[in-house]
Amino acid sequence: xxxxxxxxxxxxxxxxxxxxxxxxxxxxxxxxxxxxxxxxxxxxxxxxxxxxxxxxxxxxxxxxxxxxxxxxxxxxxxxxxxxxxxxxxxxxxxxxxxxxxxxxxxxxxxxxxxxxxxxxxxxxxxxxxxxxxxxxxxxxxxxxxxxxxxxxxxxxxxxxxxxxxxxxxxxxxxxxxxxxxxxxxxxxxxxxxxxxxxxxxxxxxxxxxxxxxxxxxxxxxxxxxxxxxxxxxxxxxxxxxxxxxxxxxxxxxxxxxxxxxxxxxxxxxxxxxxxxxxxxxxxxxxxxxxxxxxxxxxxxxxxxxxxxxxxxxxxxxxxxxxxxxxxxx
Amino acid sequence: xxxxxxxxxxxxxxxxxxxxxxxxxxxxxxxxxxxxxxxxxxxxxxxxxxxxxxxxxxxxxxxxxxxxxxxxxxxxxxxxxxxxxxxxxxxxxxxxxxxxxxxxxxxxxxxxxxxxxxxxxxxxxxxxxxxxxxxxxxxxxxxxxxxxxxxxxxxxxxxxxxxxxxxxxxxxxxxxxxxxxxxxxxxxxxxxxxxxxxxxxxxxxxxxxxxxxxxxxxxxxxxxxxxxxxxxxxxxxxxxxxxxxxxxxxxxxxxxxxxxxxxxxxxxxxxxxxxxxxxxxxxxxxxxxxxxxxxxxxxxxxxxxxxxxxxxxxxxxxxxxxxxxxxxx
Amino acid sequence: xxxxxxxxxxxxxxxxxxxxxxxxxxxxxxxxxxxxxxxxxxxxxxxxxxxxxxxxxxxxxxxxxxxxxxxxxxxxxxxxxxxxxxxxxxxxxxxxxxxxxxxxxxxxxxxxxxxxxxxxxxxxxxxxxxxxxxxxxxxxxxxxxxxxxxxxxxxxxxxxxxxxxxxxxxxxxxxxxxxxxxxxxxxxxxxxxxxxxxxxxxxxxxxxxxxxxxxxxxxxxxxxxxxxxxxxxxxxxxxxxxxxxxxxxxxxxxxxxxxxxxxxxxxxxxxxxxxxxxxxxxxxxxxxxxxxxxxxxxxxxxxxxxxxxxxxxxxxxxxxxxxxxxxxx
Amino acid sequence: xxxxxxxxxxxxxxxxxxxxxxxxxxxxxxxxxxxxxxxxxxxxxxxxxxxxxxxxxxxxxxxxxxxxxxxxxxxxxxxxxxxxxxxxxxxxxxxxxxxxxxxxxxxxxxxxxxxxxxxxxxxxxxxxxxxxxxxxxxxxxxxxxxxxxxxxxxxxxxxxxxxxxxxxxxxxxxxxxxxxxxxxxxxxxxxxxxxxxxxxxxxxxxxxxxxxxxxxxxxxxxxxxxxxxxxxxxxxxxxxxxxxxxxxxxxxxxxxxxxxxxxxxxxxxxxxxxxxxxxxxxxxxxxxxxxxxxxxxxxxxxxxxxxxxxxxxxxxxxxxxxxxxxxxx
Lengths: 329, 329, 329, 329
Hints:
The structure is a homotetramer of 329-residue chains.
Chain A: E1 3-5, E2 12-14, E3 16-19, H1 30-42, E4 47-49, H2 58-70, E5 78-83, H3 101-115, E6 120-125, H4 134-146, E7 150-155, H5 160-173, E8 180-181, H6 191-196, H7 198-202, E9 207-210, H8 239-245, H9 248-264, H10 268-278, E10 284-287, H11 292-298, H12 301-304, H13 310-320
Parallel strand pairs in A: 3-4, 3-10, 4-5, 5-6, 6-7, 7-8, 8-9, 9-10
Antiparallel strand pairs in A: 1-2
């Protein structure tokens, strides 16, 4: 396994990490998550990603049970949570969502309980919240750090300017700004990571923990001929993913990419994962899995890196046609 | 004339302003610029825009001569310059371009001499300069403010994150960040102003001085049937503008827009200008002109504002198809 | 016993202190360490030095057991730990070494558990870590102070410029910089303390807790005729010390020094220890010992101070030839 | 000519620059200095170095007369002065030397007059002054910047910790620290630049303007067979240079270096100059000259860079034996 510093911090994360989104509680039970986390850990993965909203808190509970049973040295891994959406769904009351000091603090406490750990290594603002002053967010995160409940804090799906605003306020107050962003990044969704964030990588030096590296599975090629019954797109509540990805244009690109992956002698999923970590501004790419074989296969992404020659990278850019154009200055 | 505060500053600028780019020295002589500036001033325009690079310094010299002759009360108008490109073109030596303290300082001195004024109201970094630390830029601009040589400083064509980085450094040092940005903005080029900058309008509150509101003249409809001999696109050294704008797709949109403007009973140029100042994040839209009639016509943009009903705005969006999609959060 | 303020802090340390490096767990058991710490304490020593890496954590555990058994008033002594090397040796994983917030925090927690104390009086960065931003180190140390887990923080074997960089960041953020450095210092290794650090003693006022005052025992004269079986140099894993010290040139100096000590009527070890605390920039010199007699003998260093007349100091400088030349300004 | 940014600043200096030390007024008159500065400028040199103490002020007066006569665009070159030693020699009274606000300010005024310029691009503290608080120095330099009398300030022959102390104070006060140091650096004097300053290049990012790149001429080989009558070492008041350099050991190294330079087919002086600018932490190497041919020859140092292959660099290190050993961490 390769490890990278998370942006300008001293923290080292494995370039491939393991996330529970969608799968935990919804698609897999304790015994499978135990098996998958074991495989991940044994292969050098040291970052396990979670959020209050994943399976309405059940995802963190399941991960907490596995972590307790595994009894790994707490210093050998990192675990995260994220607050914003709450976990009660349509029953969420005021202050049970968003980024107010009350919710950020209470959501942290709840995550610690569910995960059965004393502190989170990473704690994310799962989305921006324009109704809450950035100063309140920055101060609350710093209070949680002071209290020893979290070590680093981050953002997820914030705009570059929103991230910089948090840093501006932090600079003014002498506090710690966000050090990591969790953006979507994959061959079909590149603009944020490859264009919008360039200046923040260069200046404040954010790390990134990538979600949806396979475009919700589209880049595995498994939807090339329709939606299988046991797939994520067939799950209830994920219509928005289907709408986003099951477009003829995107499917056509994935098919062509699959052909190119075949030429390189590597599964298109592996190629797509390797492509994300080829980007030096990516700290870690989060893998989800429901089956042992799937995880084992995806862990081979590191071995596929040598296939990504400059020529191959150009060919991929031609196929997907998503490379953002950069400003002249 | 309507006046707007420039972002969060106390400065008031007329929503229409007058710029010398391209025209001064290249297309018009002292007598015409004298006439045009007179008309502008008499119609309530209080901001005259310039830059070291416009006509290699000759534009500022011409404006300086007119200002001296007019002898208007210095408190009744604002004048700007911009540094970055230098004015010696291919003869520029090291430190004669860019945003180092040496060039920003010396370029300011030179602009004051050419414009024959004691201070600039606005002083812009004409482009970002990644080779110079933002702290050096922020400190230099503040030193020039301390020395009374400039009143406000700004940026031009910086990314949202670059602008925020300047504000972050300024916050850290207790100094003044940029308070105005000069971006291109017109019906065919909207993403920066309507999407990228939204967060900085909301947080640090930048004002904007819009350049190219008519897409270098394309939105006047005068290129609808080719490039006239006496037009900007026919000038030497402006091939890049021709390449950028003379595209069939864009010309088609302009033609359709022209038809719609006819329906509304207003010239398409006037409509296009009015559309820019309809955006409350626009402080002022800079008009260029080579002829008296042209300027007089464009000054009517304010009168056309009532034509821009919600329905008309939607119709325009449909025609140009350039309205940026905003992120959900 | 004489006590000195630790640099510019208010903390008072005995000029001779007691360290567990090499000896604890490796050379001596609980009963001997109990006896030695008792002698030290009874003779007025109030600082006991330790580190996570010493005997892979066993050194801290042993000292913790002794402290618990002794049940001395917690306010009557100071205890330290140091983080950087980790304690798992070749099994160290990412984030289990270095100066990231994660390791500094977790190593502190582990040291508190091993030493069975509620807080450390001193907590050292055992080496510089160029891969971690100094800001992260400074902030983490201040967080630990805020949390009551440590009282003062320091560095060990950092360069003068690295120490000043920590103070620069601390000054910028209004935080507490390092107040003590633990450098090697003895008659054969003087440059850092007598030359490199002079400016930082004068400006930020670092205290110093000296390690290896006897050059790993070389200055006791016991290696004058080869390496005894029961000595440190005969231990496994300390080849690097042998290579560093068992050089003909150095041994010759020690022999000449031994002769001079005889003339003064004091053992060369005692003379060498006294010489370190003669330097007013030394806060405390750390003694290690495996035998009662050795410790008792070394405690007499204070009594030997009067022997170090200006003439004796000059003679010693001539013998060792290690006095650094200072810059003119 | 190649240009480099001066440390972390935006200023660009030519890698070879021209200094007046020793030569101006003492060895050459106005007509020769005019010729030499003309050659330097025409070859792309944009930095001219001076100091109050050089020839007791006469050096700056001479350079000022040449600059006035040349009438080069002020933005095309940089000029420096340095304060500390005063210029009245043994007649210096209190406050006519050192780094007090009074002397720094008055010395700046005097240098501006002698050099006949409105501002200095660089202004150096020629030595540290332990009798003056660093805060007074930092504040005075920032005041001079605010007043537009200097653009950047620096140090000369300060220790790494002294430079960092200035940066610490500047950080605390939100002021500008020194951005350039003028150290001696040549094949026989390497420790400061290659060891002591490494941390400050990495952290605060000082630029360097190198003096004595030829070890006062020793590295030209001209002293290989004794001191010529018309050489610097034969001048009155330069005995300290003779004592420093005319050592058998050093002369032997220079002779061997001369042989190696012959093998490479390049004069030893050219090789020695090229070697200094091979170091990326060197911003510019200052050339002195008394004759046209000498300057023309030395300007060829840039062409000699390709000769400095890794193998040649190793060979040179073996010959001079001055490469400093770096600490492990």
